[in-house]
Design a protein that fits this description.
Blueprint (H helix, E strand, L loop, with lengths): L3 H8 L21 E5 L1 H9 L4 E7 L6 H6 L7 E3 L4 E2 L2 E2 L4 E6 L6 H11 L4 E6 L4 H14 L3 E5 L8 H6 L9 E4 L2 H10 L3 E5 L5 E3 L9 E6 L7 H5 L3 E4 L11 H20 L1
Parallel strand pairs: 2-3, 7-8, 7-12, 8-9, 10-12, 10-13, 11-13
Antiparallel strand pairs: 1-6, 2-6, 4-5
């Protein structure tokens, strides 16, 4: 005999799709808000203390019982739909959420906190990166690699928006994304705080990326594909590293290059603790 809980679960998963419950034009998220879809992204937003979930929607027919149970602690913020449409768009993987984007401390506060914990900072800065897809991918890589903060210029750069948040798969909820007014001054200030500033640029004077000791306080600077690092940015770096290319192409996408360098840092830092 099935339990009442199992019966309730079956009732919440109708065999025939229902019509959307919302009509009319879609709403646009407000300032500093984003509409996130998909299980990974919404789950991280619900779990993060840095993100305010304004409202979440689920289609129980699309969620496994395990996923359904995992979001039950957040039931006050969740509305079950009879269809696949919300005021802000469709669901993906049976879930979507309107969230308020996080606000982070400045770089000095971040470094003060790491110093108090005795943690060697691992930071990334972006120079001339303007593609939101790249920024979202880099955020996701940074979260996986344990990066403590991602720095982006306030001008001539992409910032956190709905596309970036969606592509990051929830990483934006955990990795501090800090806007800086002047990247060169920020790099110089970081050096005064004891960080090694490592730029990525191919050519004479660059060393292989694996010859850098990322166990030290490190700030990795990545430039956009094609544009690379600006001259003043290069001048602010302690040294430069490169990723040798074995094929016909002369460069990697900035997201792929960032992942390659950061996971060398992960390897070194894990080896140091083994």
């Amino acid at each position: 005999m099935k339990s009442s809980r199992a019966n309730k679960w079956q009732k919440s998963r109708p065999s025939q799709p229902a019509k959307p419950v919302f009509g009319g034009p879609r709403r646009q998220p407000g300032k500093n808000e984003a509409y996130i879809t998909g299980w990974n992204g919404v789950r991280e937003c619900l779990a993060s203390p840095h993100v305010k979930v304004v409202q979440a929607w689920i289609d129980p027919r699309k969620l496994s019982r395990e996923d359904y149970e995992r979001i039950r602690p957040y039931s006050r913020q969740i509305e079950e739909l009879k269809g696949k449409e919300t005021p802000y768009g469709e669901l993906s993987q049976g879930i979507g959420a309107l969230v308020r984007l996080p606000e982070w401390d400045d770089l000095d506060d971040l470094l003060d906190g790491l110093e108090a914990k005795g943690v060697a900072p691992l930071l990334v800065a972006l120079d001339q990166v303007e593609d939101p897809m790249n920024l979202g991918q880099i955020l996701r890589t940074c979260e996986g690699a344990g990066v403590h903060g991602l720095l982006v210029p306030k001008h001539r750069a992409i910032h956190l928006n709905q596309t970036v948040a969606q592509v990051s798969q929830g990483a934006f909820a955990w990795v501090p994304l800090i806007e800086v007014t002047n990247l060169r001054h920020t790099l110089d200030s970081a050096k005064q705080r004891g960080l090694w500033v490592i730029g990525t640029a191919a050519g004479e004077g660059s060393r292989p990326w694996y010859q850098v000791d990322f166990r030290e306080n490190s700030l990795l600077v990545m430039g956009a594909e094609g544009k690379g690092l600006r001259r003043l940015t290069v001048e602010s770096c302690d040294f430069l590293v490169e990723l040798p290319m074995a094929g016909r192409l002369d460069s990697l996408n900035v997201g792929a290059a960032t992942a390659a360098v950061l996971y060398e840092a992960v390897r070194q830092r894990h080896s140091a603790t083994d």
